[in-house]
Amino acid sequence: MADTEKPTSSAKAGTSSAATKMSRLNRLRDLELKMNEARKLNNREAAAEEERNKRPENWEAKRKRSEWEEEQDQLKKRCQETGEDFEIVKLRELGADEVERWERKKKKKNPDTGFADYEQATHRQYQRLTKQMKPDQQGYERQREKMGDEFYATANTLGLHQRKDPEENVDKMVKDLEKQIEKRDKYSRRRRFDEEEDVSYINERNMKFNQKLERFYGQYTTEIKQNLERGTAV
Predict the structure, then answer these.
(1) For residues 209, 212, 217 and 218, what is the CA-based torsion angle, rounded to 10 degrees?
(2) pLDDT tens digits, residue range 106-121?
(3) What letter does residue 202 receive in the DSSP assignment?
(4) Which listed site, 18, 93, 210, 230, has its alpha carbon 20 to 30 Å from 2?
(5) In angstroms, rounded to a whole number, what is the distance separating the alpha carbons of residues 199 and 197?
(6) Alpha-carbon distance values, 32 to 23, 42, 58, 72, 160 (Å)
(7) Phi-psi category of 56—alpha, beta or left, where left has phi over 0 and alpha has psi -120 to 50?
(8) Whole-number Å distance between alpha carbons of 227 and 233
(9) What distance in Å separates the CA atoms of residue 85 and residue 190, rounded to the nearest whole number?
């Protein structure tokens, strides 16, 4: 009886150990599958990051711009099919925050920040003058009929006696020049020379150096300077 029980208990032990090994193998297999999946995801993300780094800086802005243009084209086609006004439909889809942001951009367009460099100043002046120009087509036609062939300039045209500018245009140019001079004087930071100020320098560079010294150390050396001037410093 005892002999028959021993093989049964050993069989049970063998079965349990085999099941334990199988469960361990299954867990190892699951871990290997997860590691392979994580490696694939890591490689995919690294390749995507490398591709993003190779893109130009304004790539994202261009992509959004192209998507917006495509949406506008689709909206325009839809409006043409339904017979609606594209501008009105486009304004309906704008939110209050977008309209406010657009108004702020329009107000900040071409702000006059003063003199930066000659190129920007010339461009700003050109934009301002061209906006003020109002062509007179009737006057142009009258002058062309009056002058005839002399109206069109050639290689021998001097442009001094053939035509004369109206007085109102000359006055307008003079007023514009006066405004430019007045505006330029406001931006000028040149300090005027004070004749009553004590001369303690030998040239302009030495004057600026003394001004810097006075600005940083004047409050500490005022008494010493006064004693030296009076001769009571000894």
Answers:
(1) 90
(2) 666 556 666 667 888 7
(3) S
(4) 18
(5) 6
(6) 14, 15, 41, 50, 93
(7) beta
(8) 5
(9) 57
Instruction: Tell me the backbone φ, ψ of residue 196, rounded to 5 degrees.
Output: -85, -5
Q: Report the phi/psi class of residue 231: left, alpha or beta, with left for phi > 0 and alpha for psi in -120 to 50.
A: left
**Most distant CA atoms of the chain, gap in Å:** 143
Lookup: tokens for 126: 């050109």
Start-end of H helices in the chain: 2-54, 59-82, 86-92, 96-107, 118-132, 137-147, 167-187, 204-230
**Gap between the terminal Cα atoms of the chain:** 129
Q: What is the pLDDT of residues 118-147, one digit of tens each?
A: 888 788 888 888 888 777 788 888 888 887
Q: Tell me 149's DSSP state.
A: G
d(CA 63, CA 68): 9
